[in-house]
Amino acid sequence: MINDKKVLYSAMQATGVLHIGNYFGALKNWVNLSDEFECFYAVADLHALTIRRDPAELRRSARNVLMMYIAAGLDPEKNCIYYQSSVPAHAELAWIMNCFTYIGELNRMTQFKDKSAKHADNINAGLLTYPVLMACDILLYQADVVPVGIDQKQHLELTRDIAERFNGIYGDVFTIPEAYIGKAGARIMSLADPTKKMSKSDENQNSVVYVLDDKDTVIRKFKRAITDSDSQIIYSEDKPGIMNLIDIYCAATGKAPADVEKEFDGKGYGEFKLAVGETVADALVPVRERYAQLEKDKAYVDGIIKENTEKASYFANKTLRKVQKKVGLPERIK
Ligand code: AQP
């Protein structure tokens, strides 16, 4: 607990610029959580290193994610927004917790298997130990709750296992985090292949709608979205392309799928795709405008980063010192 509030922790990887999946599926839903929780939102730039990255592009993407947090409405006075790499306690605790995690546990992680298959030429140790670093991200802040997508559930389970193992040996050092079950965000699929989720690192730019895409680009991408050869706008598993477009339309408008089916009854795919494109583009305008202002005000953003990094470091270091002491590392003489 901090300030009598439960602690909530989440992060986004700096693996590219944010898309509407990140926004409608996660970010947009984070905005009001600070009323109930003490929130920490990291830009996970260390995690992004598991894939070979162009240095300038990584820096740009980390800054994009951080500014996007603010542009989407996270108040930096109420939410701690910071770069993971700027708080060295993450990496320091990760080393210690690596020593409390079994290789067998890490080998079982489905994301490790998926990512190894995808990056067969670079199956580095970071890819394997990534869930330990993620566990430390969460444990450092004694987080009570973590909003997780389905693909991160297994990592949260591992976090709990490692924390319980450590607590079992040394006493109650870590809060055991739980999944945050809030308003479910939409799971947005690729516009080129609706069986795959929309992904920052997708090489096909047309499959991803970025939050910063201008209106024409958004509309063009939706017009080219893969659908089926039928022409009915029905929310059905048999029509994954249309189902995805309906989900996106619902995320942007707050409508339910049944209402969208009625709204577009008898209308063709062309008309529907245009409506989705226009609606999404309009929903993104305030975020894009705020982002443009932030880009012009480097001093303001840097000030936020500095203050929030200090705040994150304060809480992270408190936990790290406790762990170092418990395992028997020598006290640091100042
Ligand atoms: N397509 C999506 N639909 C809904 N939510 C999504 N999220 C990601 N993609 C979708 C949510 O966004 C947050 C950021 O997660 P992340 O940065 O850890 O990235 P990720 O989940 O690995 O997804 P990305 O953006 O597609 O990145 P890459 O290409 O690196 O895999 C999470 O809350 C996630 O659930």
Outline of the structure:
With 334 residues, the protein is mainly alpha-helical.
- Summarize the helix and strand pattern as letters: EHEHEHHHHEHEHHHHH
**Count of individual helical segments:** 12
Gyration radius (Cα, Å) is: 21 Å
Low-confidence stretches: none
* End-to-end Cα distance: 29 Å
Please report which band the strand proportion falls in: under 5%, 5-15%, 15-25%, 25-35%, 35-45% or over 45%.
Answer: 5-15%
Mean pLDDT: 95
Distinct small molecules bound, one entry per kind? adenosine-5'-tetraphosphate
Largest sheet: 3 strands, parallel
Structural class: mainly alpha
Q: Name the helicity range.
A: 40-55%
The strands making up the biggest β-sheet line up spatially as 1-2-3
Based on DSSP secondary structure assignment, what is the total number of beta strands?
Answer: 5
Q: Looking at the structure, what is the overall shape?
A: globular
How would you sum up this structure, described in words?
The strands form two sheets. This protein has a three-stranded parallel beta sheet with strand order 1-2-3. Strands 4-5 form a two-stranded parallel ribbon. It is mostly helical and 334 residues long. It is globular. α3 (89-98) packs parallel to α12, α6 packs across α7 (153-170) and α9 crosses α11. The mean pLDDT is 95. Helices cover 52% and strands 7% of the residues. α7 (153-170) links the parallel β4 and β5 (178-179). The protein contains twelve helices and five strands. It has helices at residues 20-30, 55-71, 89-98, 103-107, 110-118, 125-140, 153-170, 215-223, 240-253, 257-263, 269-296, 298-327, and strands spanning 6-13, 37-44, 79-83, 145-146, 178-179. It binds adenosine-5'-tetraphosphate. Adenosine-5'-tetraphosphate binds at residues 12-13, 15, 21-22, 25-26, 149, 185, 187-188, 197-201.
